[in-house]
Amino acid sequence: MAFSGLAVIGLLVLGVIALTSGAVPFALGLALALVPVPLIAIGLLALDRYEPEPIKLLLFTFLWGATAATLIALVVNTMVLIVLRIAINEDTADFITAAVSAPLVEELGKGAVLLILLRMRRRELDGPIDGIVYGGLVGLGFAMTENVLYYSAAAMESGTEGLVGTFIVRGVLSPLLHPLFAAATGIGLGYAAIARPSAARWAFPLIGLLVAMSLHAT
Predict the structure, then answer these.
(1) pTM
(2) 177, exposed or middle or buried, with CB in 10 Å at 0-12, 13-18, 19+?
(3) How many angstroms separate the CA atoms of 50 and 28, rounded?
């Protein structure tokens, strides 16, 4: 049931991107967004090769980032941007959305599935390495769908030159950013899973989330 719901959300998000960008830019964007995914996923799974996590949970985490977290970010950030552009000038609105709203909304959206795993499947998220793996995968899924949006928009607005430039910046120079951000949240939750004092179980997730948001904002 959960996978079906995520699939519906994913189709909705991709459908919106396709409708706004056009068939050819969308197809190019989707193809390029998939390029770094296998390599990064293999690297993340290699970190946990001595105690591999259930494939079903790994896939669910990745899909959450690619669908639910992306939809939350798309809706909330768009609403914030619209309101700010009405209230203040466009450049300031764009900056606040990118540097404040996006880090808050996106890291909370990605971190939600990690908190669910900690609460529902504590045996599977039982340390910082697990937090890195699950956090990295949810960030990877998010980055993949977000890149479809950026690549499609670049292809539609600026043609081949814009698409290639955007791919170099996002797909070649910075493909690990979203996995890194979410991994920080995962590390905090991983330490919380093994912490004894109750104060530490609250503090570690908060610290991890604040690090993720700070890195993202920077």
Answers:
(1) 0.94
(2) middle
(3) 37
